[in-house]
Structure formats: C-alpha cells, structure tokens
Amino acid sequence: MNKTLLSLALSAAFPWSTLPASAQERPASRAADEAPERTRSLGVVTVTGGQPTSLPTQIPTTIEGITREEIETRINATDSEDALKYLPSLLVRKRYIGDYNHAILSTRASGTGNSARSAVYADGILLSNYLGNGIANGSNYAPRWGLVTPEEIERVDVMYGPFSAAYPGNSAGAVVDYVTRMPSQLEAHVKMGYQSQPNDLYNTRQTFNSWQTSASLGSRSGDWSWFIDLSRGDSQGQPLTFTTATVASGTPGRAGTPVVGFVPGLNTTNTPWYILGTGTQYHTLQDHAKLKLAYDFSPTVTATYTLGWWQNSSEGRPESYLSNAQGQPVYTGLVNILGRSFTLGPTAFPLTNDEQTHYMHGLSVKSNTQGEWDWEVAASLYDYSKDQQRAPTVALPLAAIGGAGTLQDQGGSTGWNTLTAKGTWRPQGVGGAHIVDFGVERDAYKLGILKTNVIGNWLYGPSGTLVSNVGGNTETIAGWAQDSWSFAPKWKAVLGLRWEDWQASNGFTATATSVLPYPSRSESDASPKAALAYQWADDTVLKASLGRAVRYPTVGELYGATTGGALSFINNPFLKPEKSWTSELSAEKDLGNGLARATLFHETTDDALYSQLIPNTSISRVENIAKVRTTGFELSYTGQNVWMRGLDMGASLTYADSKIVSNPLFPASVGKWQPRVPQWRSTVYATYRPDARWAFTAAARYSGKQYSTLDNSDVNGFAYFGASKYFTVDLRARFQIDRQWSAAFGVDNANNYQYWNFHPYPQRTYSAELRWDY
User: Fold this and answer.
1) End-to-end CA distance of the chain
2) What is the reported pLDDT for 19?
3) Which residues are the signal sequence here (predicted)?
4) Domain hosting residue 267, numbered range
5) Are 336 and 325 in contact (CB under 8 A)?
6) How far apart are CA 606 and CA 224, in angstroms?
7) Is residue 582 part of a domain?
8) CA–CA separation, 409 vs 390, rounded Å?
9) 91, 255, 305, 494: most buried by Cβ count inside 10 Å?
C-alpha cells in the first residue's frame, strides 16, 4: 500500500497504532452512535452537531477539541481545566484539586509562568486574568477556571496561535473556548466525586482526600431557556512549599537547640541543603453557582445572560519536621543541626487564610440568520467582590490561635470588563465565496492590592496601619476585520488585520511613608493575519498560517509589585509590549477511521516579558528580553475503531527548540532554553468500549527536561523550586448502570511518579464518582 510522507512520519512516531485520527472527527459509520461533531472542508473545522464553538472555525489553522461525552468517558475530571489534559502541546500547572491561584496554561512556545500568553473563554466571557502574568508575590493571575465546572461543559476547543484577528495579542499561545450546556428540554444532573492521594515525600506521610458534589437543572419553554449549575468542593492538597536551609548557610559551632527530623538533600543547583518542614498545605472549600438565561426575540435573534458566583475559603498550614530532645516540634529560634546553627525567623513556617468571593456577568444579543448579515453585541464583567489573604507575623504555636499579622485585600478594587460589537457579512455575487468578519471592542482592567497590619488577632482582626498599596489601570480599544475567501475550487485564504490602542494610567506605589505615582502611557499597533488552505488530494489538506501578536504589559507587571521576604519585587512602569510573529505549516490526512496531522511551527518574540533576578542583587522585576525564538513540530492523531470495533486511540508528539537569542540585561541567559518550555512532550490514550455499558481508558503523558531560570542554572529539576521531566499514567473505567445512573473509577499518576514544577505535583490519586442524569 502506498503511503504519503506524512503517513510514514506518523507511523514512525506512533508505532503502537495504525495511524490515528483527530478527536475532532468522526467517521460517518458512527454518526448515529456518537453525534458527529465536525466535518471536513478544505481542512477547516466545521461544527455540525452539539453546541457550536465560538472559535472562528473558517480559519485554516490548527484547532483541536473535545466533547462532553469524551470528557466523561476518558478523563478523571475534577476541575474544568482537566478537559485539556490530553490535547496536544498543552499543560495546565494544576497542583491539587481546586487549585485557584497557580493553575496556569502552558502552550507550544509559552511556559507555565506566562498566563498572559493564552486566552481562555467560557461562552464568550473572558476567564483569562490579564491583571497580571503568572504568579507574583502572593498575587495570582491564573485563568478563573472555577467559574466553569466539568459537569456543565458541552465542548472545549483550542485554536493554536494568534491567527484570528478577533482575539487580542494574548492569544499568542492559544485560544481556549469552553461552551457550556443550554438545554432544549427538561434535564437534570447530579454528581458526587471522591479522591484520595496517599502522599509520601520527605517526612510527610499522609493521605489527602477531596470531595465534590454538583447538581444542575435546565429546560426550555417557548422562547425562554434556562440552566442552573451548583457545585461544592472540599479539598485537601499535599504540601506545596518547604522550609529549607543550605548547609553552608549554617554557622559552625554548638549554639542553638539541637534538633532532629531534618531531611538532607540537594537543591536545584545541586547544593547540599536541609528540608526543615512544609508550608502551604491547603484545605480548600469552594462553592460555585451559575445561572444562564436565554430569550429568543425571533427565530434568528437571541439574548443570553450569564451570572457566575465563585466562593473560595482556604487555609494554608505548615508542619515542622524538627523536634527537640523532648520530642516537641520546633518552629522558631536558633537551632543546631549536626554542629551548625541556623536561625528560624517567625515566618519560617508560614500560615495563610484566604477568602474570595468573585462574580461574573455576561450579556449578549446576537443574530444567526446565516444570510448576508449577522451581528452580535456582548458585554462582560468580572468583579473581585471579596479577595483577602491573612497571614501572621508571629511564629507557631502562637500563630495558630492569634497574634500579629497582615491583611492583603483586593476586594472592590480589582476586576475587568469587556464590551464587543461584531458582525459577519456574506456578500452575494462577488467572485468566490467570502465570509467577512469585523468588530470593535474595549477591554479595561483595574488592580488594587492594599496590604495593612491587622489590629489584634490576625485571624479576624480589622485592617490597621498601611504596609503597602499598589495599583493602576489598563485599557485597550481594538478594531479588526478578516475575510475568508474561497477563491478557487481547492483553495481558501483568510486575510485579517487587528488594530489596538492601549493605555496604562493611574499607576502608583504607596508605603506608610511615601506615595509614588507613575505617568500615563499609550501605544498603538497593527497585527496582520493570514492563512491559506489547499485540498491537495481528496484525503489530504495542506494549511499555512501567519500572524503577529502584540501582548501589552499587564497592570500587575507595570504597577503590582510589592516587597516581601528576602526577595524584593519592584515595579517597571516603562515595560515595552512583547511582539511575536508566529507561523505554522500543517498537513492533515484522512485515514478513514481517523485523522493524522503534522505541523511545523515557528515563533519569534521581541521584548518578551519575563520576571528575572537582577544579577548580583536580591531584587526581581519584570523586564523585557530582547528576543526569544522557538521552532518545532507537532504530530497528532486520533482514531476510532482502531484495530477492532470499540477501540479509540489518540496520540501527540511535540518537539520545541525554544532559546533566548538576545538579553542584554542578563547576558548569561543568551543561548539558554526558555523557562518551562520542555524540548519534548507527548500524550497517548486508548479507550475501549466492549459493549454499550463499559468504557476503559488508559492514558500517558510525558514531558522532557526543562528549566525555571533564565540562565538554566537549576540543573536539578527534582527538587523544591525545580521543574522536572515526568511520565505519568492515568486509568479510568466507566460503567453505565442504567439509563440514568453511571459510575466511574480512576487512578491519576498510577505509576506514582514524583515530579515538580516549582511545587510538587500530586502523587498517585484514586478517584470514584457516581452520577445521575435525567
């Protein structure tokens, strides 16, 4: 049998299967069983069943996706970000169930410290948090995953790269679009889930358990439709931080209280150190409520309103491994370890209490005539109604019951809002078939972080004297247009242009003794986009995409830094925007029972925004890296009824050569790997359905060596602060008990691989769930 070069390449990459197919495609023979989601036209994804995605699927570029049925069958999903787990080149840095502040999305050429280089939406409402980038000094900027539960997801789609003019420069890495349920008739769902993680790391040997419950109800009556979703999670995560001291930092001698229980080891630079205990073992309670209302003014005009409410309450608690001669735990003071003395400060073992209540509103009115004209007007608001973190400044055991402390508060002064008007024109009688999309939008962000000393008890006392106050605003006004043109029987082209005007204002930093305001700034940029598809053969499509993305500094990067601990974070209100050119070339082949894809991608980013330590100081600040360049390839396959009926398989393999090309501020980083972007990563899964009731899934994920520092000095990734390679295996079995009841059992990280991304990831975790659907 003759094979194309693409088929040969994929056979070599995935020898364990007959070349797969994309999860986005379904052969016609299974249409009745699984409601096909997409059909192929010039390699462009077109939704034909289920809830439609809001992604611009007429653009011939890489789009991957997963449906509700596939999530339920294949994934042990406890949070909405789990839906992305096995999609090519994606990683969410989820450290524990309910991780609300560090679960950042990584893409082909962006690591888990660059949350502002991807765009996450739910029903068109922005979930990405562009108040900042990554994690900085206690403030977090991960997407607001908690505003979507796994049970309400209808489908998730991902567009790789900044190839649509409809999205801001933050789409440089990827655009993720969650579509949630909107019933056409009465339906109800209830789900209960339980997870257990036996954890064994250093001197922590404990099992951490979690519970989730959810319920949803929805229906349609005449022109009205509605959906309500409620959920609650109670999660115990493994310890995430550790109190450490390098051996060399101790003073030789007999001073201090002799202690035992410390764990010797090597840090990320292979320097000997002691692990003295844990910190930030979170007990998290989360509640979520979602109301969706829709009204059809006519058969072609619909209004939709969404109200989301998310509440989080978490306690971060430490444990000292150290004990004195009487067996009592030691948390502070001068201690002696093997003839060296070390001083433990009052916050060496930190405690935190977090309380958040966030609201999300979304309103849209749009037409869907599929005629010459369609339009949409949409607005959204995300409000930090309450957002507080309390921490003591006294040591344990006193800190457990009270004492002095601080309060960091963002409530009422932090959030964002968006306003968009867009249209679609399908001109008649013009040469070739055109679809012209265009729009204008405004995005505005405000940040305020007030930190004060607490009056009285840190656990509940009111705000007192000022420690620091930082904040500011950013705003972007944009206009865009793009034309999808089928100019010949086997050709399609898309040309687009996005223009953006960005402003930063009202920035300031205040302490108890001073206030420093920053001048306002503005910049305008144009970002062209282009894509081309050619139907090379009946079963093979070639696609090429090119796009420019301008990612403006966030208000947090400009103004949001404060000072804490031994490391100082300072502002740089004069940061330049980072500007990327991204391109990809793909070939897709229909294999009858699946789809194989091979993609070459390249990205060059000027003035990349990165937090970096200023050499020979203890000061860290966000700075521009002159140039970062990434080149790589991605192979992807998904197939149905592979080898035998009922066996579905999928796999992907990604290679990325991502290097810092120029960085005058830190020359030692030139030629080094971009942090948190591994050279190799891969996923593979197989689902077997022996009959209509049972489904068994096995999946594996691999990520190669990576670094966290710009100069790649962290050569030991298997340590606290490190970023390690990993290989994990997940298992899931689902049983359809009857028409309404189903149960599932699973194991994540079944091989119990201990791996790190600054913090330790979860070890082997068992899960069970029971579900009722009407």
Assistant:
1) 48
2) 31
3) 1-23
4) 242-271+308-349
5) no
6) 49
7) yes
8) 9
9) 494
244, 276 Cβ separation under 8 angstroms: yes
Asked if 406 and 351 touch (Cβ cutoff 8 Å), the reply is no
- According to the model, what pLDDT value does residue 21 have? 34
Q: Which of 63, 27, 80, 46 minimizes the C-alpha distance to 648?
A: 27
pLDDT exceeds cutoff 50 at 165: yes
Residue 96 is predicted with a pLDDT of 96
Nearest residue to 475 via CA among 533, 418, 513: 418
| pLDDT range class, residue 17, cuts 50, 70, 90 | very low
- Please give the structure tokens belonging to residue 704: 């190669």
Dihedral sign from CA coordinates of 165, 168, 172, 176: negative
- DSSP structure class, residue 169: G
Smallest CA-to-CA distance from 42 within 634, 588, 429 is with 588
Residue 321 CA: distances (Å) to CA of 203, 208, 247, 349, 527: 7, 18, 16, 11, 54
Position 135 scores a pLDDT of: 66
Question: Could you give the CA distance from residue 387 to residue 15 in angstroms, rounded to a whole number?
Answer: 51
Q: How much is the average pLDDT of 399-426?
A: 94
The full DSSP string for 37-68 is -EEEETTEEEE-SSSPP-S-TTS-S-EEEEEH
Phi/psi-derived region of residue 740, left when phi > 0, alpha when psi is between -120 and 50, beta in every other case:
alpha
Give a yes or no: residue 293 inside a domain. no
Q: Would you say 690 and 663 are in contact if contact means Cβ atoms under 8 Å apart?
A: no
Provide Rg for the chain, Cα atoms.
26
Nearest Cα residue to 505 out of 491, 482, 522, 484: 522
Whether 336 and 482 share a structural domain: no
Q: Find the helix or strand (DSSP H, E) in which 465 lies.
A: strand 463-488
Q: Which amino acid does the sequence have at 163?
A: F
Q: How confident is the model over 421-443, as a mean pLDDT?
A: 88
- Rounded-to-integer distance, Cα 621 and Cα 562, Å: 10
Q: What percent of the chain has pLDDT over 90?
A: 83
Q: Given its phi and psi angles, is residue 374 left (phi above 0), alpha (psi -120 to 50 degrees) or beta?
A: beta
Task: Indicate whether 499 pLDDT > 70.
Answer: yes
Residue type, 546: L
Q: Does some domain include residue 477?
A: yes
Is residue 581 domain-shared with residue 448, that is, in the same domain? yes
How many Cα atoms within 13 Å fall on the side-chain side of residue 71? 23
* Confidence (pLDDT) at 574: 92
Structure token digits, residue 358: 């966030």
The closest of 45, 48, 46 to 62, measured between CA atoms, is 45
pLDDT mean over 239-264: 96
Could you tell me if residue 285 is inside a domain? no
Contact 382, 126 (CB under 8 A): yes
Query: In which band, very low, low, confident or very high, does the pLDDT at 710 lie, cut at 50, 70 and 90?
Result: very high
What is the total residue count of the chain? 774
Q: Which two tokens stand for residue 254?
A: 């007999």
Structure tokens at 402: 């009270």
Which one, of 265, 176, 134, 89, lies nearest residue 633 by Cα? 89
Domain ends where: 298, 328, 349?
Answer: 349
Closest CA to 727 of 748, 759, 749: 749
**Same-domain status, 118 and 251:** no
What pLDDT was estimated at residue 721? 93
Contact (CB, 8 A) for 106 and 676: yes
**534 and 413: one domain?**
yes
The pair of structure tokens assigned to 596 is 């194989």
- CA separation for the pair 109, 627 (Å, rounded): 13
User: 733 pLDDT exceeds 60?
Assistant: yes
d(CA 366, CA 518): 40
Phi, psi of 307 (to 5 degrees): -125, 120
CATH classification at residue 633: 2.40.170.20
DSSP string covering 92-117: E---STT--SS--EEBTTB-TT-GGG
Could you give the CA distance from residue 440 to residue 314 in angstroms, rounded to a whole number? 40
332 or 615: whose pLDDT is higher?
Answer: 332
